[in-house]
Amino acid sequence: MPAELDFLTGTATQAAKRLLGCELIRTLPGGQKVRVKIVETESYDQTDPASHTYNGPTQRNQVMFGPAGFLYVYFTYGMHYCANISAGQAGFGAGVLLRAVEPLEGQDEVEQIRGIAGVNATNGPGKLTKALQIDFDLRGHNLQLEPLELIVRPELDQSQIVTTTRIGISKAAEDLRRFYIAGNKYVSKK
DNA sequence: TGCCTGATGTTCT
DNA sequence: GAACATCAGGCAC
């Protein structure tokens, strides 16, 4: 792991905050490049009742028990994929859910894929996976490699990071584990 | 503008 | 067999 990704081996919460402002470059199956900025994240780890890793390793969540910097993809509600970046030390189940991204390049591709334009194309965990065409093919993918690369950007000032409670979960929903960039219009609603 | 609900499959119990 | 880290469309106000 390159030194610039070392922050991922800290706690999931540290990784979630540090990932804000970083970029992802997605090379689509057709060869087009889409570049997005991460604007909203959530942290999960095995001490958290809402986490998939809370009850120990299973076939599904083994990526989050592996080394940091890999993609954990899961399917939910019968029609949506969600994407996480594994964090922490190997053997400890932790990860960061990507909740919203801001398109920087390839916005036309995103709008074509999603069928809609503007903020609503990528401002939710199920939306951004569809926009970036993330599915089980990318489960366990190394984020240092194509077709989905994590690009580290300078750390944001703490004053730009907003910390709130999580959304759309039933357990430990009051935990302050959701983070987003202050004032960014691509952050999900509620 | 805001609540309610249907869609729909993987995963774990 | 039930839960689920969601989304979008419809209808009421």
Structural class: alpha+beta
Q: What radius of gyration results from the CA coordinates?
A: 15 Å
Shape: globular
Helix content: 10-25%
What's the rounded overall pLDDT mean? 95
Q: Would you list the SSEs in sequence order as H and E?
A: HEEHEEEHHEEE
Largest sheet: 8 strands, antiparallel
Annotation field: number of helices? 4
Strand content: 25-35%
How many extended strands? 8
Low-confidence stretches: none
Q: What is the fold's blueprint, element by element?
A:
Blueprint (H helix, E strand, L loop, with lengths): L11 H8 L3 E5 L5 E13 L16 H4 L5 E6 L3 E7 L7 E12 L1 H8 L10 H7 L16 E4 L9 E4 L13 E4 L9
The chain binds a DNA duplex (13 and 13 nucleotides) through strand 3, strand 4 and helix 4.
